[in-house]
Amino acid sequence: MSELKTPGPGDTVFLVDGSSFVFRAYFQSMNQDRKYNYRADGLPTGAVRLFCNKLYQFIRDGAADIRPTHLAIIFDKSEASFRNEMYPEYKANRSAPPDDLIPQFPLMRAAVEAFGLTPIEKGGYEADDIIATYAREAAENGADVLIVSADKDLMQLVNERVSMYDPASGEGRRTGQGRMGVRPERRIGVDEVVEYFGVTPDKVVDVQALIGDATDNVPGVPGIGKKTAAQLIAEFGDLDTLLASAETIKQNKRRENLIEFADQARLSRNLVRLDDHVELEQGLEALTLQPVPPEPLVSFFKAMDFGTLTRRAAEDFGVDHGKVDADPRYLNIGMPQGGPEEAADEIALAGSPADLAAHLERSLSGAVVDLDAYETVTTAERLGEWLEAARATGNMGIAVRLADGPAMRSPLAGIAIAVGPNKACYLALGRQAVDLISAPEGMALEEALPLLKGPLSDPGIAKVSTAMKRDYLALRRAGLDVTPLDDVGLLSYTADSGNGLHDYAGLSKRYLNHTPLDDRDVMGTGQKKIPFGEVTLDAATRHAAEEADVALRLWPVLRQRVVAQRVSRVYETLERPLVPVLARMEENGVRVDRNILSRMSGDFAQTLARIEDEIYELAGEKFNIGSTKQLSEILFEKLGLPGGKKTKTGAWSTGAQVLEDLAAAGHPLPVKLLEWRQISKLKSTYTDALQDEINAETGRVHTTFMMASTTTGRLSSTEPNLQNIPIRTEEGRKIRTAFVAAPGTTLIAADYGQIELRVLAHIADIPQLREAFAEGQDIHAITASEMFGVPVEGMDPMVRRRAKAINFGIIYGISAFGLANQLGIPNGEASAYIKKYFERFPGIRDYMEATKKTVRENGYVETLFGRRAHYPEIDTSNPSLRAFYERAAINAPIQGSAADIIRRAMVRIEPALARAGLSTRMLLQVHDELLFEAPQDEADRAIKIISTVMKGAAEPAVKLAVPLDVDARAGASWADAH
Q1: Does the pTM exceed 0.85?
Q2: Alpha-carbon gap, residue 769 to 846, rounded angstroms
Q3: Up-side HSE of residue 597: CA atoms within 13 Å toward CB?
Q4: Do 52 and 94 belong together in one domain?
Q5: Residues 6+ apart with CB under 8 A from 802
Q6: Which residues contact 834 (CB under 8 A, 6 or more apart)?
Q7: Is the domain of 412 the same as that of 503?
Q8: Are residues 194 and 335 in the same domain?
Q9: Are strands 704-706 and 716-718 parallel, antiparallel or unpaired?
Q10: What end-to-end distance do the CA atoms of the chain give, in Å?
C-alpha cells in the first residue's frame, strides 16, 4: 500500500461523480447490442461494464492527458438531502430509475471496491456537495482538481485550479466524434463555463437561481431563460442587486415576475448552491491512489462475465485469469451462483423441472436433508460463528418463526440460518420452548440484534427465504433490515405461473423429492395445537432450520428456471422489489372505525329480519333460508318454479345463477333470496368479521397480500380479504365508510380509469378506441356510437349501458348467453351485438384469434412486460374446458399487463414521495386502486406525485399508445375519497 499523502502542489485529484456516471453509462449501454448489456444468466450489467471500462482508464491512463495522484468515486447515498427540508418538492418530479438499472446500483459500488477504492457517500448530502468539499480543500492546498462529470451544477466550482472533464461516450478519444450522436469527451474550464452560461463560474449560481431547473424541480423565476438571466446578472452584478433593483427594469412582464417571485429566486439559489463544507470521514489523504489489487479485480470481472476486461486486467497485472475464480459474493448480488461457463451451461438446459432437479442433485453431491444435522444456537459466540460462515459463502437461507400468530401480533420466537446443505441452525430468542429438563433459555433479542444487523443488510450476502415478505416484515418490526433478498416461491411463480402451486412444501417435493415437516408435525392440531413459541427447542430447530436449508437448496435451481424461461426482468422489476413495499403496507395497515361497523351490523340485522319476514310470507311458511335442502323444496317442490336443475348428488341446485335466472323470469321469491344473501354476506364477512380483525395495539386492520396466488399477476389479500369489498352496490359502498383516516390525516384513493380497456386498445391496435382515449372522450359512448350509429350527444343511457357491458365483457371473453343474462335480453340479440362489435372493431377479433393460436403453440401467453401465464391443459379434449382456457388466455395479457402496471407504480411511488420529503404512506392495493394516508397539509402535493408516477408507470419498458388516466381524491374515509 502506498503512503497516504495530502494532495498539494503538483498533485491532481480526480473526483468522479459516480451517481451521474451510472446513469450515463446505462443510457449508452442501451444503444449497444443485447449481448453486451446482460450477463449470461440474464442479469443486466451493461452500465457496470461501461463504468468499469472508464474507471480502468482513469486509474491506468488518466484523462485529458492527466494522470491522477488521488482519486475518489462519489455517490448519492440517500434519495433525500437537506434541500428537501428547505423545499419538499425538490426533485419530486424525477421518475424512478430504469428497471434494468436498479439491479446494477449495488454492483457499481462493488466494482469500486474491486478496484481497491472506497465508495464515498454521506446521508443527507448529494454527491455534488461532497465533490464541492473535496475540490475546495484540494485547491486550497495547491493541488489541481479534475471533476469527472457533465453535470452543469458542478460548473459553479470551476476556477484556475478546478476544471471538469466530460467523459461523454468514451469513444471520442479514438474517433474524434461522439458515438450514437453523443459529443466527444472534453475538458471544461472557465472559458467553457462562460460559453455555456454566459457568465463566469462565480456567477453561475445566480443564473441558475433565475432560470430554475426542471430536472431537479427548482422553481426559478417564470419567463426567464438562460440568455436573459446571464444578461441580467451581467448588468446588475449579482442576484441580490438585481432583485433589489427589479422595479427599474423596463420590460413589464419581466419586472413583475422578478418582484413577485423574488423569494422563489432566493430559495432556488439556496437549492442550487453546493455545500462545500461537508464533514467527511475520509480526508483528502484517504484519496491517495493505491495500486490495484489484481486478483480481486479479475475475480470481479469474471463474476460479471466481462471477458475483455478480464483478459485485459490479467495481462496488465500479470495474473493468470484461469487460476482466479469468480467471487461468489458478486454472483449472489445478481443472479445465480457460478461463473459464466456454469451459467451458460445451465441456460442450455431444457429448463424443465426434471432437468433442473437433476442438475441440482448433481450440484449438491446427492446430499439428503438430515434433520439431525441442525444446531440450536443460544449464545452470542456461536451465532457470530454462523454469521461468519454466511459471510464466507455469500449465501444465507433464512426462516423466521413467530411465537404466536402473524407478525403484527406476535414477537419473534427465533430465526433459522442456513449456509449450505445440512448446514443450518436455529437461533432461539427469549424463552423459546422451554424443555424444563434440558433446554436452556434462548438469547435475548436485544443481545442478538447487534450481531444480526450487519449480515442481514450486507449486500454481499444473498438472503433467501421461502416466504420473504413474512420474514422481512417480522425482522423489520424487530429493527432489522434485510437486503438483498430472494424468495424461492416468487422465483417459481415468475417462471411457472399457472403450472401448479408455488408453496414451500410443494417446491421441496417437486425439486428435491423431499417432504418437509408440516406445522402440524410440531404444533399439533385441533384442541391440542400449541403456539410455536411453546414447542420444544428440538422441534423448533428441526422445523425452522429445515425450511432455511431447503430454501437455500431451491434457490439456484429456481434462479436458473427463471433464466431458462427468459423472465428474469419480470422477477427483478415486478416481483422482488415489491416484497418490501407490500411488507411496509401490511405494517401500515388501515384504520377502521369499530363503531361504524357495529352500527352497520345492527342496521344489516334489521334489514335481514325484514327480508326474512317477506321471504316467509312469499313461501307461505318459515324455513331455514341458509339450508339448500329446505330452500330447494320450497322453490321446486312446493312452489313448482320452472328451470330447476339437479346436481350430481340428485339435489336441486340453488346457486346464484339459478336464483338470478328465476328472478329474471319475474318470480319475486328469488329476488328476495338474492337480496338476503347479499346483505347476509356483507354482515358476516365484513361488518362482523372486520371488528375481530382490528389490531388492539394499532387500531388498524393489517391484511396480508398474496403475490403468487393468481395466474395473471393480480394481487390478492387474506386475513382479512379486502380485495372483494363490493363497490357496485349502495350497501357495499357503505363498508368503505368504516375505513377512516387517522386524526390529522386524510385518505387518498388513486384509481386507474378503465385501465384494462386502455391496455386492450394498445394490444389489439383499435384506432377508434385509441383516438377516444387520447382525446379523453367517453369510451362507452364512443363504442355505442360506432356500433349502433347513434350520436354521442343526447345518447340514451340504456344504449351506453349496453356498450359498456360489451366493452368489459369482451375483455373476459363473454359469451352471447352471458351477455344476454347481464343485459336481460334474448340470446339472439346478444349474439348480434357481439357480432357487430367485432365488425366495428376487427382488431379485437384478430387479437383473440392470434392469442388462441399462441397459447396452443406455446402453452402460455405474455403480458406487455414479459410476464407469462401458462395454460398447460389448453389442448384438453373437453370442448367446454378448452373454451374456458382460451378465454382465460385472451384475458391474461390484458388483466396481467394492468396488474404489472400497478405493481410498477407501487414500487416507484414510495421513493418518489420520499424524494419530495413527504410522509404519505401507502396502505392498500385493491385491483386498479391504491389507498394512501397523508397528513392533511401535504395531501395536494402527494396527489400530484402519486398521479404522475401512476400515469408513467408503464415507461420506459412499454410506451403505451393510449394515455393512462388516474383519478386521485382525498377524503376523511375511503368512501369519501371516491
Answers
A1: no
A2: 15
A3: 22
A4: yes
A5: 784, 823, 833
A6: 806, 810, 814, 816, 819
A7: yes
A8: no
A9: antiparallel
A10: 65
- Determine contact, residues 387/455, Cβ cutoff 8 Å: yes
Domain range for 317: 293-345
For residues 319 and 172, membership in a common domain is answered with no
112 lies in the same domain as 187: yes
**Own/partner pairs, 30-33, CB within 8 angstroms, 24+ separation:** 30/100, 31/179, 31/180
Which ranges in 262-376 belong to alpha helices (H)?
262-272, 294-304, 307-317, 328-333, 340-347, 353-363
Strand partners of residue 844: none
- What is the spatial distance between Cα 978 and Cα 976, in angstroms, rounded to a whole number? 5
- Give per-residue pLDDT as tens, 637-677: 888 888 777 766 667 778 777 887 788 778 889 889 988 99
**Which CA distances in Å does 331 have to 83, 147, 619?**
36, 32, 71
- The strand pairing partners of 921, in sequence order, are 933
> Is residue 16, in this structure, part of any structural domain at all?
yes
Which residues fall within 8 angstroms of residue 652, CB to CB, at 6 or more apart? 628, 632, 633, 635, 636, 644, 645, 646
Domain CATH code at residue 462: 3.30.420.10
DSSP letters of 824-876? Answer: T--HHHHHHHHHHHHHH-HHHHHHHHHHHHHHHHHSEEE-TTS-EEE-TTTT-
Based on the structure, what is the number of domains in the chain?
3
Name the burial class of residue 239, with classes exposed (0-12), middle (13-18) and buried (19+) by CB atoms within 10 angstroms of its CB.
Answer: buried
Summarised one tens digit per residue, pLDDT across range 580-601 is 999 999 999 999 999 999 999 9
Q: Assess whether 426 and 553 both reside in one domain.
A: yes
Structure-block grid coordinates of residue 978? 371516491
Q: Which residue has the cell 432556488?
A: 268
Residue of higher predicted confidence among 334 and 330:
330
